[in-house]
Write a structure and sequence with these properties.
globular
C-alpha cells in the first residue's frame, strides 16, 4: 500500500502522494509540475521576447536565453528531466510549425 492509500498493484500505476489526493495517477510523472514548468517557460519567453523586440534583437535568441535561465544551467527553476524533455519536444514542434507557416506565406504572398 502506498502513502496515499491506494495499492499500486490494483492499477499498476503510481499514485499522487505529495498532494494527498486519493486518485490514481495515470502519467509517468506529476502533471502539475509539468504544467507549472510550461507556464514558467511561456512567461519567461514572453517577457524576454518583449525585451528583445524593444532592443531590436532576434526573438528566437530571447526564447533560448529564457530556457537556459530557467533550466538546470541557470536559476534551476526547472530540474525535472521529464519536464525538460517534454518542453524541449513541444518547443521544437512549435518552432518547426512556425517556420513552415512563414515559408508558406513567403511563397504565396498571402495567408
Amino acid at each position: 500500500m502506498c502513502a496515499c492509500g491506494y495499492f499500486k498493484g490494483r492499477t499498476g500505476l503510481p499514485c499522487l502522494q505529495r498532494t494527498g489526493l486519493r486518485i490514481p495517477f495515470l502519467f509517468p510523472f506529476h502533471m502539475h509540475e509539468l504544467i507549472r514548468d510550461i507556464t514558467l517557460c511561456i512567461a519567461a519567453a514572453w517577457l524576454l521576447g518583449l525585451v528583445a523586440h524593444f532592443l531590436r534583437q532576434p526573438v528566437l535568441l530571447a526564447y533560448l536565453a529564457g530556457g537556459f535561465a530557467l533550466g538546470p544551467a541557470g536559476f534551476k527553476f526547472i530540474e525535472s528531466g521529464e519536464s525538460i524533455t517534454a518542453i524541449a519536444e513541444l518547443g521544437l514542434i512549435l518552432l518547426l510549425g512556425a517556420d513552415g507557416e512563414s515559408r508558406e506565406v513567403a511563397t504565396r504572398g498571402t495567408f
